[in-house]
Amino acid sequence: xxxxxxxxxxxxxxxxxxxxxxxxxxxxxxxxxxxxxxxxxxxxxxxxxxxxxxxxxxxxxxxxxxxxxxxxxxxxxxxxxxxxxxxxxxxxxxxxxxxxxxxxxxxxxxxxxxxxxxxxxxxxxxxxxxxxxxxxxxxxxxxxxxxxxxxxxxxxxxxxxxxxxxxxxxxxxxxxxxxxxxxxxxxxxxxxxxxxxxxxxxxxxxxxxxxxxxxxxxxxxxxxxxxxxxxxxxxxxxxxxxxxxxxxxxxxxxxxxxxxxxxxxxxxxxxxxxxxxxxxxxxxxxxxxxxxxxxxxxxxxxxxxxxxxxxxxxxxxxxxxxxxxxxxxxxxxxxxxxxxxxxxxxxxxxxxxxxxxxxxxxxxxxxxxxxxxxxxxxxxxxxxxxxxxxxxxxxxxxxxxxxxxxx
Length: 407
Prior knowledge:
This protein is an alpha/beta fold.
């Protein structure tokens, strides 16, 4: 069984390295995310990218670049490689003359990309001897936590805003999780998790407040590179709330270059937020390193409604270093785009990803996406997990059917 090449953790802000792998950690002493580091020089000599990619299974094939040391602790629900779907009609519809592809993370267990992070985080919790886990959630992460925690025989507790989609709450409960609605935002839910640590004895799995969800999300970067023949797209659009996926992919690209798997080329990293909750966009536009909290956050695209993110500076660094940008999309545009993608491609994207299609359209119109660019959008979850309009017409079989009226 392949071994992990993890060496230690380091503070993402200060670079402090005195954090041992195989120990329980939340944030660094500076109050910022810890990033796992690996012995890439040894790994480069010991195994090839082709050998890893040829292995069966999903993201656990990247064992050497994941933190779990003992295979017995791996907690899996049969993950597989998520497909990349070509969308030429949607490209034309949204004004892009080049290639448009979608990485469909809705095919993972619990139907969202949260499975990557929570599978690895729960596996590490198991390895570290933790028994009770807690986190704030906008829906999908809570369901993924419940699924993997139940699989591992651990307790899970999730706290979500009042208007979290019902299906997420029901899913979490059906998967053995404990979940509460809260009359506040996701960061308010995070405060409940923090306040209950001593009394409840749980470990805080909040986004980027522990090191290992990030490492699971990183596998998306390895996977898409391999699927595209070890050539990265020209632009990569992310629905962005807490920003873990952006930070994780940026780490994945750096590790792959250090291993000689790819060259120095990076995609333009496009962080997409809703106009009703766009703290990273505001910080990007004003040239700030850190983002201030967004008051009165609102959007039905629940996954990107995060008023304040602890990894804000990491997201902004990836966006700026890549020549990308952060962009906010109006609420009405999100749901119109979701319907348009469905009607043109037969593909039900989640609202968060629908916002990225609007961002692509703006990029094509304004010229920061070139006609020759190969663009990838991350569909972070299955669109069926969200409320949709009930607009279907009805027929009365007690009366003659007017078939002409059906057209």
